[in-house]
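Whiteboard transcription, Tuesday session. T.W. wrote the structure tokens on the left side:
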């Protein structure tokens, strides 16, 4: 081998057994340290992959009913919405666009009352910006005919009101009507023509869809409230929102003085900022907590190398008498410790990636084998354990584990370089 002798000796100490070291306990501690690093790395990769899978699942279900980008008029109405859609579609990242009217209202049926986030839509265009048409459990969006005052509700909202397709509900508009007797609430009877299920309880219990012309008549608007967009890459929503907000990107209506009216643009990350911030914080804390497992394994590596240095004092003294410099002695034990850390990290990365990749198949197999269900449908909104292996997370975990292992070797290696040959060989 053409490697420096420090590497050769360090590698020999790493793979040495009881016959070479004279102490099998030292080799056992080294193996335990390696196994601890591997298990810590694997556990961290698996847990973060599962959390990424949950985040992806919730995000996809959320965005199946929510638009990626919203363009709203500051006046509450956008008469020039067709030109806004044409201008937005000039951006190659915009896949679809549709007008909408948004409002908050109350729905009543018998003694049941529930709030609803009401959205007036064009049934012919809505499929360009959401997947509600594919999520219908009963009825269809095409049943939202102008003038018929039909409404489509989420499954949870329909259950809370106790209604089915064909039943009638009373909608209480947010703005009342001024009468000689004072302000009277504006009421309108709607017929339930469909029920959808996105799989996300928050939206199934909140959203309701009506025809956009019925919404304009109910809210006394002469135009839609704004435009919803769906883009090619949802992760680039903030970037595309900023591009559309630039002067000249969209045509703007003018006020009575000819001054352009501003548009308010928002993307899905802003609309759900609290939820994504909570998930980000949870992932960060989980990373720190599980990283302590790797830190404990690194402490075991310190004890293993300290015992190795103590056991090899005679060898160190002989090398020093043959002309080895303190830095060379330090390199020997650095090689040994970093080799243990590298092998443990590599095994952990391989094991963690294998487990995270196989979760969609192994978990159902274990459920069938032991006749259990880890995620009951009555408790959780998903019944299968999701997993998404992110290369950046794997790389970050592997680098962190190797750096901790390398840092753990510094003190034992420095101690080995300070061994005095005369004192070490006095009783040999």
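and on the right, the sequence the group agreed on:
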């Amino acid at each position: 081998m053409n490697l420096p002798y420090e590497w050769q000796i360090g590698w020999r100490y790493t793979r040495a057994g009881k016959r070479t070291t004279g102490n099998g306990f030292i080799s056992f501690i080294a193996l335990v340290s390696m196994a601890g690093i591997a298990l810590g790395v694997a556990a961290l990769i698996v847990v973060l992959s599962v959390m990424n899978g949950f985040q992806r699942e919730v995000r996809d279900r959320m965005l199946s009913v929510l638009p990626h980008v919203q363009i709203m008029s500051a006046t509450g109405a956008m008469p020039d919405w067709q030109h806004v859609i044409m201008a937005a579609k000039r951006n190659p990242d915009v896949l679809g666009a549709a007008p909408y009217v948004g409002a908050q209202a109350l729905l009543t049926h018998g003694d049941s009352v529930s709030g609803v986030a009401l959205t007036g839509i064009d049934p012919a265009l809505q499929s360009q910006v959401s997947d509600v048409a594919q999520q219908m459990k009963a009825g269809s969006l095409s049943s939202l005919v102008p003038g018929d005052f039909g409404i489509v509700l989420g499954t949870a909202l329909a259950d809370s009101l106790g209604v089915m397709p064909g039943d009638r509900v009373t909608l209480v508009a947010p703005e009342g009507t001024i009468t000689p007797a004072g302000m009277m609430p504006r009421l309108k009877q709607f017929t339930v023509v469909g029920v959808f299920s996105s799989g996300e309880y928050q939206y199934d219990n909140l959203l309701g869809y009506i025809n956009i012309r019925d919404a304009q008549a109910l809210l006394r608007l002469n135009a839609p409230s704004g435009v919803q967009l769906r883009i090619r890459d949802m992760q680039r929503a903030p970037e595309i929102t900023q591009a559309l907000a630039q002067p000249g990107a969209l045509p703007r209506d003018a006020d009575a003085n000819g001054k352009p009216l501003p548009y308010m643009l928002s993307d899905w990350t802003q609309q759900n900022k609290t939820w994504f911030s909570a998930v980000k914080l949870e992932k960060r804390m989980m990373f720190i907590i599980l990283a302590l497992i790797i830190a404990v394994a690194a402490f075991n590596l310190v004890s293993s190398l300290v015992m190795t240095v103590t056991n090899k004092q005679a060898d160190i003294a002989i090398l020093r008498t043959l002309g080895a410099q303190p830095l060379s002695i330090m390199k020997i034990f650095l090689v040994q410790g970093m080799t243990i850390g590298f092998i443990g990290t590599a095994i952990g990365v391989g094991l963690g990636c294998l487990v995270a990749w196989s979760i969609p198949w192994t978990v159902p197999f274990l459920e069938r084998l032991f006749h259990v269900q880890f995620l009951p449908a009555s408790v959780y909104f998903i019944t299968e354990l999701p997993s998404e292996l992110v290369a950046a997370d794997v790389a970050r975990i592997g680098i962190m584990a190797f750096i901790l292992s390398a840092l753990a070797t510094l003190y034992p290696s420095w101690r080995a370089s300070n061994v005095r040959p005369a004192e070490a060989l006095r009783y040999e």
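Someone added at the bottom: The longest helix spans residues 326-370.
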